[in-house]
Automatic annotation (TrEMBL):
Quaternary structure and partners: Homodimer. The dihydroxyacetone kinase complex is composed of a homodimer of DhaM, a homodimer of DhaK and the subunit DhaL.
Record keywords: Transferase
GO cellular component, one term: membrane
PANTHER family tied to this protein: PEP-DEPENDENT DIHYDROXYACETONE KINASE, PHOSPHORYL DONOR SUBUNIT DHAM
GO biological process: glycerol catabolic process; phosphoenolpyruvate-dependent sugar phosphotransferase system
Pfam families registered for this protein in UniProt: EIIA-man
The protein, known as: phosphoenolpyruvate--glycerone phosphotransferase
Organism whose genome encodes this protein: Vagococcus acidifermentans
Entry keyword Transferase: yes
């Protein structure tokens, strides 16, 4: 089983910057991005999210998002995806960073899920 990450944000530049940060600790982790609307305005795009899921070569995808409507679109995309996607309700940057570092270190999905619990937003 291979693990990857998808980053979903309302602004196209946010996941690009976060991706740069994550690659510092997780050079080998497949990370795909979906930021902004189809015409790059503020918002999210179901189509961009679906494409990011398709483009990620991992078997299991850990999904991180910035705001509630991004979560809603992620949930819809997950329904249409053949991949196993694990949606994390954590602080966007801290959650994605932690997961990327753990994946790079070879930590299992179950262990990652346990370690993400303290970062969960309630």
């Amino acid at each position: 089983m291979s693990l990857g990450i998808i980053l979903v944000s309302h602004v196209a530049d946010i996941p690009i910057g976060l991706h740069k940060l994550l690659k510092e600790v997780a050079a080998d982790v497949p990370i795909t991005l979906a930021g902004g609307t189809e015409d790059n305005r503020v918002g999210t795009s179901l189509e961009k999210i679906q494409q990011a899921l398709v483009d990620n070569p991992a078997d299991d995808i850990l999904a991180f998002y910035d705001l509630g409507s991004a979560k809603m679109n992620l949930e819809m995309a997950i329904e249409f995806s053949d991949k196993s996607v694990h949606l994390f309700d954590t602080a966007f940057i801290e959650g994605a960073y932690t997961a990327a570092a753990l994946i790079q270190a070879g930590v299992t999905l179950d262990e990652i899920t346990q370690q993400m619990q303290p970062l969960k937003i309630k």
